[in-house]
Amino acid sequence: MGVVINRPTDVTFETLFEKINVPLQNSSVANQPVLYGGPVQPERGFVLHTPSAKQATHDWDSSITIAKHTALTTSKDILEAVAQGNGPEKMLLTLGYAGWTPGQLEQEIAQNAWLSVQAKDAAELNKILYDTNYDEKLNATLALLGVDPAMLSDVAGHA
Q1: Cα distances (Å, whole numbers) of residue 159 to 18, 25, 87, 114, 156
Q2: Which DSSP string corresponds to the chain?
Q3: Which of 66, 150, 154, 158, by CA, is between 20 and 30 Å from 84?
Q4: pLDDT per residue over 8-21, tens digit each?
Q5: Do the bridges between strand 40-49 and strand 91-97 make them parallel or antiparallel, or are there none, so unpaired?
């Protein structure tokens, strides 16, 4: 599974929290956009976040570590903590996810349908995930590969 990290929606944290009956006491996140995470289960929330000192002392019900400094949580308790100002230091909240059948993603990667990049360190990954504007995330990631987006084509051919 994967989540899209560069497609903000018109829904804000404040609007979402109202819909799920979570009182928002932390006004600093009220206007933060909820992201379109993908077409599968668009009613389901996914929180991509940095583990923090606060998180280390609080066990979210459904967190999984996906990289050394990145976790994914799907339980409502993390949203309640965010609403109270006790959530992770940095986070993205998405609705929905992208999914593939067994072997499909590997096949797409083998067919060069995807460009993959491994971040050299957590700071580099976190900068793109949490500190880069949504419309600049793709180019920032391509820059890690040394790829100029102007040189990419969405048309395939045979030579």
Answers
A1: 55, 59, 52, 20, 10
A2: -B--SS-EEEEEHHHHHHHTT-----GGGTTPEEEE--SEEEEEEEEEE---HHHHTS--TT-EEEETTEEEE-SHHHHHHHHHT-S-SSEEEEEEEB---TTHHHHHHHTT-------SSHHHHHIIIIIS-GGGHHHHHHHHHT--GGG--S-----
A3: 66
A4: 999 999 999 999 99
A5: antiparallel
Give the CA-trace dihedral at 67, 49, 123, 11, to 10 degrees: 130
Distance CA 147, CA 153 (A): 12
What type of residue is 24? L
**What does the mean pLDDT of the chain come to?**
89
Pairwise CA distance, residues 15 & 11, whole Å: 6
What is the pTM for the complete model shown?
0.86
What is the rounded radius of gyration, in angstroms, for the C-alpha atoms of the chain?
17
- What domains appear along the chain, each with residue ranges and CATH number? 8-146 (3.40.1740.10)
As given in the structure block, the two tokens for residue 36 are 């379109």
